[in-house]
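Write out this protein's structure.
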Amino acid sequence: MSTRRQRRSVLAWVNIALLAALVPPALGNTVHVPSVRPLQQAIDAAGDGDTLLLAAGNHRGPVTVARAITLRGEPNARIVGNEEGSVVTVEGDHVRIEQLEIRRSGRDLSNEDAGVLVLGDGVHIARVRFRDNLHGVYVLAGKDVRLIENHIIGLAATDDDPQVIGAEGARRADGVHHTPRATQSLMGNGLHLFDAAGAVVQGNRIQHVRDGIYVAHTTGAVFRANQVHDSRYGIHYMYSSDNIIEANELWANVAGPALMFSRNLTVTDNVLRDHSGFRAYGLLLQNVNASTIHNNEIRGNRVGMRLQNSSANDLRYNRVFGNLAGVTINSSSRDNVLTRNHFGLNLRQIELTGPAPPTDWSIDGVGNRWYGSLPMDLTGDGISQWPHHEVDLMAERRERFPPVQLLTGSLGLRTLEWALGRAPTPGARHITDPHPLVRPRQETPAQ
């Protein structure tokens, strides 16, 4: 063959390869699956890219999906397990599960029983109703998973519970916290992610579970616009860094986000409200470092924010009001920045568990807005020339002797702290904001 002909042949094969790359793969077939047909049989017969359209009614689980297919339900289609293991186990990559109801997993916490157990990568689960399962979705080392607009009701709910149909109802006490009626230590989580790098968890509604969203050893993930209520922790977060938590609403749990042993988190635009009990926090940072906490609304909690052994975090534009305590800081939380926050009417603004740690309460001559501060704005720039002090006479005594909590908010203690706040005496535990705001500043919160 001549050199010219060889070149033409090579170019022809290159063109064929390029065309093949540009043409999308076949979408596969749509197969209608009646409820009387064994679902596992239909799954095993499907090819990559096929869509199984499940008819209304109960389809029997458990089932295993090992190839890239879509399970999609017609109205009132359900996959119902036999209370052993997971209802659906996803072993393949790029599986999609949509518009179904999934019920009746096993109850074995050691076996990761769930409505859906995800072992593959690129799995997409959207608009699925989970009911009567141990965990809703359990992602175990699956990468780039998408969990979108699912509704998860945990084992604490019953069919006659008014909260199942949307009303919050009364919370029930276990002697320490307000909890749902089931024993939470025996319940599963709504969404459980372990080693799930690149996950997107968005628009889910979760209630009556142990932890709404449990995250461990996961990076590069986004948790956005989820709603969690009547559970233990809204978000329970361990050893997971470089993630985004934004625009979620968490309420009426034992605590909101409990973020632990992580760094480089972005926590913005969340509403964290109405968490009550002995140790209830709107936002808990424990061993969290170098993170951004901006523009959150934190209200109606036992403690708005607690910083425990957490350092070098940037907290700005947050609105903290209606809490028994606005912020609790322990002496090991150092070099945090708190500026441009609005501390509204809290029973007490600051609780210290020891000596006040090094903290920047103002940056570039701008501090925070404090309810009850004495304004002295001589220049008209919205910044007081009179420093603001918050005194905590109980300080570490509160941690060592819990009964002193009964004095919080008492007229005598508040009067004494108010007087000392004008000019703190040596030895009084206090923080100082050197440049408090006297009115909101017209600034756009950092995005």
